Amino acid sequence: MVLAEQLRAAGVRRGDLVGLALDQMTGAGVAAAGAAPIGLGAEVADVAAALTHADADVGPRWVTWSAATASAALGLGWEIPRSWDLAAVHRLLVGGWRAEPQQIWATAHGLPAPVLAQRAAPPDLFSIDAADDDGAGAGPVRADGQLRSDWPAGSWRRDPASLAAWAGCALEVAVRQAEMIEALPDRPLASTVARSESAAELLCAELGARGLPVDVPEAERLIAAFVGPRPRTEADADAARAARDESVLRHAPPGTTYLLRNPAHVKSLLRSAGIEVTDTRAWRLEELRGSHPLVDDLLEWRKAERIATTFGYAWLDAHVGPDGRLRGEWTGSDGAAGRMTATVGLHTLPAELRPAVVAEPGHVFVRADLGQIEPRVLAAVSGDRALAAATRDDDLYAPVARDLGVDRATAKVAVLGAMYGQTTGHGAQALRRLDAAYPVAMSYLREADVSGQVGRDLRTRGGRLVRLGPIDEAGLDEREARRRAAARGRYARNATVQGAAAELFKMWAAVVRTRLAGTRGEIVLCLHDELLLHVPSQAGAEAAAMVVDALGEAAARWAPDRSVRFVADVAVIDRWSDAKG
DNA sequence: TGCGGCTATTG
DNA sequence: CACAATAGCCGCAG
After folding, report:
1. Burial letters for A339-361: b for 16+ Cβ neighbours within 10 Å, e otherwise?
2. Strand B lies under 7 A from the Cβ of residue A349
3. Of A27, A127, A307, A489, which has fewest CB within 10 angstroms of its CB?
4. Residue A377 · residue A431 · CB < 8 Å
């Protein structure tokens, strides 16, 4: 194959960075250091085959602009094995969420942040930024060194030569990013994290494409138990809704009208039954359960209404394909601490509906979740030897309870309270004992808290920038300014732990993903501290052992001093709900 | 039509 | 009801 030979001729070795730009319709562009950019178009009969072969033969680390490149590759029938994702690394370096090529380029080149046009639609020939029209030629880079704002979206620039130029830009940025990552003071893990964050982007593209297996008839049965059978007509749906409402409204005084979807009305309705509440949240009403049938019926109505509006038949129809796969969009790192997010309720599926997530015939799920990940991560990032010692126990809270001289439940609340920034209530007493038992961990959290309060940016252990400034408290009274400072403090305190946990989780997921490559097993869900794998039945036990081993590998990479132990619960199951939650 | 408030679900 | 997220409905401002 031509491409593989060209890469070899350019001296590309396994793991070297090679720029990649893809367009499903028109071809691909590839750029390697020391070689002229290579455009793969009409002359290459099968672009996917050429890339697949080049990958197997040479095995570079493909530089992608974003997860969209991975999606395009999947569209061509090729799963990128490893990448350097410019958007993911950019987010690591400078925090936040937006990572357009123009911003990525400017950051990597030390240029001022470009003013990004707010575009509702992709650019066309008539919406070119005036600054782009500078006579610097047709390439991607403007005379002022910035990237042109209309690259590469315009369809007139998806020819192989333009894609090759685009791949060349990607390679150049990746080299600069790698230097910046390497130069981060006191963050030796950042290069490793950059690669696992890149892998997470690949995984996001794959999760979006493959979806989560759902037993649709079972899902319909579960939904029906809450809101009745699938309505056949609009009138049917209205009648079912009215019937649901009536189950609550029958408790209202005759001649009154209350709208159940308006909290103020619900409060009035409760008052009409002699019940005074400051708000109508379920946890508050739960305390009043049994005191009046209205409360019980209202709580049941809320549950059904939630299913009807968010996880009902419309949801099923919109997001579950004819192949029984539930598909949403995945993001590799959110704006705050860098956790993965997913749309269409993949992360908030109510426990009652989880029995509908069923492995396909001949397959099983391997469900694995990290145990007590946040306190273990706190022990690692802070370097607290006493807390690290507690991680040797399968149940970290047992030794912590002994260290604090309290019961397990109190110990757990205290530790979580410290990580979330709770300063009042039941945990306050135990918090003082935490200070005495784990001074290093507690001062780590306190320092993060102070950073948040004064608006000083932080980096997680893996190097992700958590942006905390600038603070705008114009027009705030002192009370409100203090309240916001405290909120920033709690946010910062938590971000250092949650963000580090997200890094470890993604590293684990990346190792698992690599080990599954070439097998018929696949990751189908990531849920902050939990992985769900879908594998052929006969491979279940092997995959279960593999995820445990993969955790060992990820932990050794992320926390190389080995002082902290990480544990995972693993089960081979047919339904997501089969394992304990 | 966009946005903040309220509510629900999850880790 | 601490920390984070997505998502839906309501009322209100523009």
Report:
1. bbbbebebbebeebbebbbbbee
2. yes
3. A127
4. no
Question: What type of residue is A92?
Answer: L
Q: Which pLDDT does position A131 carry in this prediction?
A: 56
Please indicate whether residue A469 or residue A543 has the higher confidence score (pLDDT).
A543
Per-residue b or e along A451-472, where b marks 16 or more CB atoms closer than 10 Å to that residue's CB:
bbbebeebbbbbbbbbebeeee
A281 touches strand B (CB under 7 A): yes
Highest CATH level, class, for A374-500: mainly alpha
Of residues A104, A80, A109, A110, the one with CA closest to residue A92: A104
Tens digit of pLDDT for each residue in A247-290?
Answer: 999 999 999 999 999 999 999 999 999 999 999 999 999 999 98
Looking at residue A216, its pLDDT comes to: 98
CA A390 to chain centre: 29
pLDDT tier for residue A2 given thresholds of 50, 70 and 90: confident
Q: Residue-wise over A431-448: b if at least 16 C-beta within 10 A, else e?
A: bebbeebbeebbebbebb
What gap in Å lies between CA A474 and CA A575, rounded to an integer?
Answer: 53
Inter-residue contact A84 to A61 (CB < 8 Å): yes
Please state, in angstroms and rounded to a whole number, the distance separating the CA atoms of residues A11 and A9.
Answer: 5
Give yes or no for residue A574 having a pLDDT over 60.
yes
Total Cβ atoms within 10 A of residue A524: 23
Q: What is the pLDDT of residue A405?
A: 94
In whole angstroms, what is the distance from residue A248 CA to residue A482 CA?
Answer: 42
Nucleotides of C under 7 A from a protein CB: 1-11
- Give me the residues paired with residue A325 across strands: A213
A367 has which bridge partners? Answer: A532, A571
Q: What percent of chain A has pLDDT over 90?
A: 85
- From the CB of residue A570, how many other CB atoms can be counted at a distance below 10 Å? 19
> CA of A414 vs C1' of C4, distance in Å?
19
Tokens encoding A38: 């290579």
pLDDT grade, residue A504 (50/70/90)? very high
Pick out residues whose CB falls under 7 Å from strand C.
Answer: A 259, 261-262, 281-284, 286, 309-310, 315, 328, 331, 334-337, 339, 341-345, 347-348, 413, 416-417, 420-422, 425, 427, 487, 490-491, 494-495, 498
Domain with CATH 1.10.150.20 in chain A: 374-500
- Element containing residue A238 per DSSP (H, E): helix A234-249
User: In the complex, which nucleotide's C1' lies nearest to the CA atom of residue A334?
Assistant: C5
Q: In chain A, which residues fall in CATH 1.20.1060? A: 216-317
Give the span between the Cα atoms of A453 and A447, in whole angstroms.
Answer: 10
pLDDT at A415 over 50: yes
DSSP-derived letter for residue A230 is P
> Which amino acid is residue A26, in one-letter code?
T
- Delimit the CATH 3.30.70.370 region(s) of chain A: 326-372+502-578
Architecture of domain A216-317: Up-down Bundle (1.20)
